[in-house]
Amino acid sequence: MSVTELPQSPTAGLYQEIQQFYAQQMHLLDDGRVGEWADTFTEDGVFAANAQPVPAVGRAAITEAAAKATEAYAAAGVQRRHWLGMVSVESATPEAVTARCYALVIETPRGGRPEIKASTLCEDRIVRSGGTWRIQDRQITRDDLI
Amino acid sequence: MSVTELPQSPTAGLYQEIQQFYAQQMHLLDDGRVGEWADTFTEDGVFAANAQPVPAVGRAAITEAAAKATEAYAAAGVQRRHWLGMVSVESATPEAVTARCYALVIETPRGGRPEIKASTLCEDRIVRSGGTWRIQDRQITRDDLI
Amino acid sequence: MSVTELPQSPTAGLYQEIQQFYAQQMHLLDDGRVGEWADTFTEDGVFAANAQPVPAVGRAAITEAAAKATEAYAAAGVQRRHWLGMVSVESATPEAVTARCYALVIETPRGGRPEIKASTLCEDRIVRSGGTWRIQDRQITRDDLI
């Protein structure tokens, strides 16, 4: 894809909606609000990562995996922050968006120093569902495992 | 707050205004332009942080604290960069916005390597004042002190 | 420049176009698609950095420098990610934009940990050319070399 073939820029409204959605979504996870975070995926949502042997398929499986990780971080006294940035909306219809962004996981232990635990590529299919945006498919590629 | 109860997305114009405001505000501080940076707070602005025993209240107190820190960094030959991201506009009227974002402080000593000195949550009340946006209340929560 | 003299906020559409342009541009470079990345500069584009003795002038020189670096990173098994953020659009006409942002280079070796290799200031002149935005002049100031 050459630059002149890059998709036409999405409407400004759509682009900021995705930015706001990403921010709110990750605030929920980093605040430990797992159920509400999982609700940002569709019921049949897929969360796949090259760090995991098999994808989590369906909101129940996504919730279970996130709850386990969230409890482990809380027990360890570590605050996570997920930073999504460099968002590129690759295609958009009124009902579905594909987006590609970078994601960092920054962890700070209580009394300790922040560290970047993972640098990743995040590829999403986001759909309108129940009056809001939800992730239907998320693919996370951790840079150290490429 | 469930996802379906998330505030309606602010207008795209407002969202980008806040992003631009945050960028310009922190460029001023990182450039050592303390007076102009302090002018991005209201006269009665509050800057509170869990790293400080008491909040700085009023622009004069905010200026004084920032000037002191800025001189110390300059004397040490350290360039700071404040990164605000993952911006979520939580409520908005034409005159006042509440926003929640993440903020990193990245420091680079002359001839040295960049390091993340602090990972924080930033909660702002931003108001229209004198024809521009200004911070009326900023609460910074450093992750290592939670 | 005092805050009250800050340029009027650009249209939301323009601001998001620049964000999307930056994301796509750096995705190309980090994906090793050097030719397409170089095509995001004008034919007479300039890439200057305080880390380099002389600027790269013209798309051919920019391509050559980027290709060399890209091959070295690939050979070393290191994934780079360029994060541009804290974007401030400083001036804008329908044909040309000046913008100032921060840029981080985050590197992850295969099997290793991500590290911030460089924290920089990025100052761009971006012009409409051939139906799209292209960089006409980019000045990178690495914080460790100030």
TrEMBL record, chains A, B, C:
Residues 15-138 form the SnoaL-like domain. InterPro entries: NTF2-like_dom_sf, SnoaL-like. SUPFAM superfamilies: NTF2-like. Pfam families: SnoaL_4. Signal peptide: none annotated. Gene3D superfamilies: 3.10.450.50. This is Nuclear transport factor 2 family protein. It comes from Streptomyces spinosisporus. The lineage of its organism: Bacteria, Bacillati, Actinomycetota, Actinomycetes, Kitasatosporales.
